[in-house]
Amino acid sequence: MIICGVDAGGTNTKCALINKKGVLLAESKTGPGNCQVTDISNVIQEIKKALNVVCKKVGINEIDILGIGMAEIGCQEDIRRVKNNLLPLSQVGNCFITFFLTNLKKPKL
Hints:
Order of helices and strands: EEEHEHE
Radius of gyration: 13 Å
Structural class: alpha/beta
Largest sheet: 5 strands, mixed
Helix content: 25-40%
CATH superfamily: ATPase, nucleotide binding domain
Distance between the termini: 43 Å
Shape: globular
Number of strands: 5
Strand order of the largest sheet: 3-2-1-4-5
Number of helices: 2
CATH architecture: 2-Layer Sandwich
């Protein structure tokens, strides 16, 4: 079992892979992944880059569990956009994805 954690932060996006015993397999750091710093399209690209780097370092093709921490995400639609843009990645297609969010803003009507 391969577990991946992503911290999409304002300064950078950090990503780590661990196995079921909790052993760190790989880490990566890419550009900012916070919606207060950059737009949602760039957030998605930074998460994709971070995922690709760790998977390439370890030589794996599939992640079993993916947890993504994000602050200041705009709304539920932004979460759907992130998830829908990650699912086509070969490493992510069949995994369980969960989001850890702070300050989720309600959409303006």
